[in-house]
Amino acid sequence: MSFFAIDIGNTRLKWSLYAAPQPGAPVLAHGVVFLEHIDTLADDQWRELPTPGSVLGCNVAGDAVRRRVEEQLELWDLEPRWVVSSAQAGGIVNGYDHPGRLGTDRFVALIGARQHVLARGPAQPVIVVMVGTAVTVDALDHHGRFLGGLILPGHGIMLRSLESGTAGLRVPTGEVRDFPTNTSDALTSGGTYAITGAIERMHRNLATHTGQAPLLLMTGGAGWKVAPSLELAHELVDSLIFDGLLALQSHRLAL
Fold first, then answer.
1. Residues 95, 82: Cα–Cα separation, whole Å
2. Which pTM does this prediction carry?
């Protein structure tokens, strides 16, 4: 029985069709589309796909976007399920003050990260970084408890904020430099170091709290921009949210 996973972010929708609803299942097909083009999915990317056995999605773009996606899913006459953050699921305990208010993308990515940790050996703490429209830096201890995390603007938001609030800063994208000597490089370097600085601070906080150096996993569409400037050992895992969706669906079927 195949499984269809959907990740709706702030700017793009990503999807993957898996051979089975379980971690490690082969990917049969996958794709991505900007949110403004969602309404073409049934006639374009999804038209030739076989009908999946089940659909589970993660959505942070709001109810209106979710409804548009559901209209496209009528192609298969399937009722999709959507993840809702909870106090406990997929091997993690959600330590947010109000568990239901944790973004579902963060919640699912933490579950995916926990699966990665357990698949490679003994449990250990992990930092989960998602770099997209916004950047989140979340801490998971070796027991699988989400301790908390940081939210900061992504590169694009930082630059647009400076452009709108400061005259004369509409300049081309620059390079990351140790000592920037032009405005373009200064802006790009400043944004990158703000993000890497937040990651390094959370990494230090978690290592101090647990007494163990954490694994650092990075995901998100703009992760590749930050990774070269991050001095900490890390891994880029593009499929982290999908890994979490697979784990949730597998657990549900096992109950």
1. 21
2. 0.93
